[in-house]
Amino acid sequence: MTAQDAKPPEGSAEPAPCPKCELLDQVTAVPEVYAASTSAEEAIYAAKTIATNKNQPPEARTAARARLRETRPPAVPSRALAPRPPAAGPLPAFGLFIFGLIAATLAILGNHKDPAATTPTTGFTLHSTTFAVVSALLAALCLIFMIRALVRNHRIAVGLSAAEAVWRCGWYCGRCTIIYFQPGQEPPGAIPGRFLMPGEFRRLVWQSGGYLRG
Ligand SMILES: [Zn+2]
Fold first, then answer.
1. How far is the CA of 189 from the centre of ligand 1 (A)?
2. pLDDT tens digit sequence for 203-214
């Protein structure tokens, strides 16, 4: 098959052939590859969850195992073509709440002295003070992580449209597992005529969004 015989991906504007194999039959727009990989990974994860859950009926687990056998893992993992890194999770905020609560509770209890108390409480006070200080330090650490995550998420939100503009221009060749841009449509940072490996392409996309370094 030659580049002239090959058909462009359905529903997409006709791209130039792959610069490596000079064919079009396995060339797909990057967003389509990413969507297909994401969908396959979600199907595999869902089937695995059911197949390994002993609380599920045997028939459901058998069907899930059959789906697992039938579902092929994506040729390229979705994370390799992701236009953005995963969003920061709520763990730092949760840690801040828990450690902050512990530190505040111990501080309040430490300040509350019972005038009727006659037994010495020095040992307990020392331990609770140490625990309060450690909790406060951990809460401060969680606060730093939370602020960094908020800044990072904000930076991604601001730069995502610029990154996606580059991402949408990429074409993936399944035979050569490379990505290339149409001649004359290379974004800033891409060398005309040079194809990219998925990792290089993702770096270029994230760099275009201004969040390559987190
Ligand atoms: Zn190719």
1. 22
2. 999 999 999 876
